[in-house]
Q: What sequence folds into this?
């Protein structure tokens, strides 16, 4: 079975940092383009960014609200995706999901991890 | 980029049909045939229902169907079942390696 498990969420002060992990199994992580998405309380989903598979160059693109503060990376040897979040703001409070992207859609998702930024 | 607009809620009795709209612009929904739909039971991982406007992944019942007209995409759930009660959201490719999601619709089975 395909599994994506996010971890690393929690309570952090405004201006602080947090690193989320997405540990995967059951599919070829090395071949996957991986994405981070979040959902703030009472809001819709928001695409944060994506990292290509390493064999395609591993290019990372970010959504404007997080560009320069968040960093997406991957460790293919561990089948794990990361999201380093710096200079966190109250508006970053959300459930964060990792997902695999396949030809313009998101075929596998994790259950999410909650990040709460305290002001 | 603005979120795609979905109705906050929709409902229907078992066996009935419910249609959820997803309205964007010519920069996303209207500009690309890359609209996808997801079902999300709170606390669980979202599940892909429809991709590329009308295509269903293997394992998704044909009760779920998608369509698009202009800047609005739609998901229809036919023959509503109790387990269809969930949140549904759409997504569209918006060009230049960017995606936009819908505001989400909570479906209630009466």
A:
């Amino acid at each position: 079975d395909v599994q994506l498990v996010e971890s690393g969420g929690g309570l952090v002060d405004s201006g602080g940092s947090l690193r989320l992990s997405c540990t995967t199994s059951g599919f070829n992580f090395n071949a996957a383009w991986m994405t981070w998405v979040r959902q703030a309380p009472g809001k819709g989903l928001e695409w944060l960014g994506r990292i290509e598979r390493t064999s395609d160059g591993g290019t990372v693109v970010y959504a404007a609200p997080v560009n320069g503060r968040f960093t997406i990376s991957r460790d293919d040897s561990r089948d794990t995706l990361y999201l380093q979040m710096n200079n966190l703001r109250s508006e970053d409070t959300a459930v964060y999901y990792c997902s695999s992207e396949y030809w313009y859609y998101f075929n596998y998702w994790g259950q999410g991890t909650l990040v709460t930024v305290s002001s | 980029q603005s979120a795609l607009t979905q109705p906050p809620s929709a409902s229907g009795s078992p066996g009935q049909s419910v249609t959820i709209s997803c309205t964007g612009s010519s920069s996303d929904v209207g500009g690309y045939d890359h609209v996808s739909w997801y079902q999300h039971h709170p606390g669980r991982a979202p599940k892909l229902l429809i991709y590329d406007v009308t295509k269903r992944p293997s394992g998704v019942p044909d009760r779920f169907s998608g369509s698009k007209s202009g800047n609005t995409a739609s998901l229809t759930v036919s023959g509503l079942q109790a387990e269809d009660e969930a949140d549904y959201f759409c997504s569209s490719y918006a060009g230049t390696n960017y995606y936009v999601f819908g505001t989400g619709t909570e479906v209630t089975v009466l």
